Amino acid sequence: MKIGIPRSMTYFWFYPFWKAYFDYLKIETIVSPPTNKEILNAGLKLAVDEACLPIKIFLGHVDYLINKADFIFIPSIKSTEPKRYYCPQVIALPETTMMAFDKKTFLTPEINSHSKDLKWKDDYRDFALKLGYDHATAKEAVEKACVSFNETQNIDDNQYYETNADTLKIALVGHPYLVNDSFVNFDIKNKLIQHGAVIKTPQELSPKQVDNNTTLLKKDLFWSYQRNMVAAPNHYSKDDIVDGFIFLSTFGCGTNAIIEPYILTGAKKLPFVTITLDEHTSPTGIQTRLEAFLDMVARYKEVQNESSISLDGALAYRS
How many CB atoms lie within 10 A of CB 110? Predict the structure, then answer.
């Protein structure tokens, strides 16, 4: 049996877990290639017009795999912690995909810990049982996968980069499928590195750091990863951890529309830019905005070093 894994959406959260899980079960996997123009075009033909860019790209990745694997793995990940959920688009990925394809070769286990902590482990164990494995093998596959997943999470602030006072430190805030897909974000990470910047992301925050930096909200967010995105500017704006913020969003993203004001507030006095992405976004426009933003960050650092002039509120814009 060969299982296909689309390199999109929840891949950028959970692939280390899935890889170790299927490897232990001795199931061959195939991952779609990094996003490219062909994958995007395939997704555009399959998706409804109102779908956000990540959904269109996800369907393009499924289209690539549809005749290359026996089954395609698309879990319905509702929740991995009590009383919190993932984005509605993530929850509905199996249904969205099945509506777009006639060929029904999808594995869609439900992962839901809303009512019980760590129930998601039971869900993956039960999935292995349904595939025909015994209880001991199913349990061990989940434990091995957890170890692999934990090794990739929450890099310590003090160990991640060695920098000097002149180094530009930029927080790239967005969903993992935007921050880590170089086709979607026009290779923004490498562009920042080429300009001498180092990068921080919400994925590096530990659960404790997320909790500590969302306590000022009047009401706790019930979206899991969006809490990381709101916590990131609050955390990274402290003690000169970063010099500025880039918020990556996509046109039509409902959850981002709600949390963006919290992200902007958390960034406080630091330079901030919102970059909205869709299939019509121009790479030249992104390059121009990025260079202007980095110039703004460099000037901010110069002004801070030269005087005590306050620039609060003067260095935020959207593009």
Answer: 15
- Please state the length of the chain: 319
**pLDDT(318) > 80:** no
End-to-end CA distance of the chain: 46
Q: State pLDDT tens for residues 268-278.
A: 889 999 999 98
* Arithmetic mean of pLDDT, 192-205: 92
In the chain the domains, ranked by start, together with CATH numbers, are 2-150 (3.40.50), 157-318 (3.40.50.2300)
The answer for residues whose C-beta is within 8 angstroms of residue 60's C-beta and 6 or more apart is 8, 35, 38, 39, 40, 41, 42, 43, 44, 46
Question: Residue 153 contacts by C-beta under 8 Å, 6 or more apart in sequence?
Answer: 203
Tens of pLDDT along 199-230? Answer: 999 999 988 999 898 877 777 788 888 899 99
Residue type, 240: D
pTM: 0.89
Cβ(61)–Cβ(8) below 8 Å: yes
Distance (Å, rounded) from C-alpha 157 to C-alpha 202? 11
**Hey, CA dihedral for 76, 143, 201, 282, is it positive or negative?**
negative
In sequence order, the 6+-apart residues with CB closer than 8 A to the CB of 6 are 31, 32, 58, 61, 62, 64, 65, 72, 74
d(CA 240, CA 142): 39
What share of residues in the chain are helix, strand, coil (percent, to 5)?
A: 50, 15, 35
